[in-house]
Amino acid sequence: EVQLVESGGALVQPGGSLRLTCAVSGFTFSIYEMNWVRQVPGKGLEWLSYINSGSTTIYYADSVKGRFTISRDNAKNALYLQLHSLRVDDTGLYYCARGIRDSDAFDVWGQGTMVTVSS
Amino acid sequence: DIQMTQSPSSVSASVGDRVTITCRASQTVTIYLNWYQQKPGRAPKLLVSATSTLQSGVPSRFSGSRSETDFTLTISSLQPEDFATYYCQQSYSTPWTFGQGTKVEI
Q1: Shortest alpha-carbon distance between residue A12 and chain B (Å)
Q2: Strand ranges in A9-118 using DSSP code E only, listed in sequence order
Q3: How confident is the model at residue A88 (pLDDT cuts 50, 70, 90)?
Q4: I need a surface site. Which of A24, A29, B28, B45 has the fewest CB within 10 A?
């Protein structure tokens, strides 16, 4: 079964840091592009970051550029998102999502991990 | 950034109704427009990629089409399990952007 499982979400103070992990199983992780997408509860979806299969191409949304870092370990079947300088408006449910190479659509999603930034 | 504008923001419909949701891009996205369905407490689910490619397992009552920068998701005969929020997303150029969502309600 294809599965993405996020972890690492927590309550953190403004200015703090977190590392989110997406553990992957059920498919050959090393050949797929991956993404992080955020959703404020009750609100819409915001794409945050992309990494290709070999980690040679990385993109970020302007809202997180310079503060968040995406990475992956193909040997461990894991995707990461390092969050620094967290702000209150970074609060949300963070999803990892697999990308389809030909269309860049997100065909498999995890269940999300909640990040709450509050003092 | 490419802005995606969905309409309507919500629609009330009955089982068996034909429902059409529109997404307009602020500039060309060619065919790179995707549709997702999200139910409360669940992750989004990809329904249609690249304007009109139905994902495996998605019922044929769902279809997608395009006219220039206007895209449409049509549900031909609404079923009880289709009540959800639907999002469009362009994957033509980064930052990939989503529409604000359309809630399909009873």
Answers
A1: 23
A2: 11-12, 18-25, 33-39, 45-51, 58-60, 68-73, 78-83, 92-99, 106-109, 113-117
A3: very high
A4: B28
CB distance from B40 to chain A under 8 Å? no
Name, in order, each residue with C-beta under 8 angstroms of A4's C-beta and a sequence gap of 6 or more. Answer: A22, A23, A24, A96, A97, A98, A108, A109, A110, A111
Contact state of B91 with A59 under an 8 Å Cβ cutoff: no
In the structure encoding, which two tokens stand for residue A57, read together?
A: 């191409």
Determine whether the interchain pair B43/A45 forms a contact, defined as Cβ–Cβ distance below 8 Å: no
How many Å apart are CA B31 and CA B81, to the nearest integer?
A: 28
Residue B15 pLDDT class (50, 70, 90 cuts): very high
Per-residue model confidence (pLDDT) at position B8: 97
Q: Which of B36, B49, B98 sits opposite A103 (nearest CB)?
A: B49
Stretch A2-26: mean pLDDT: 98
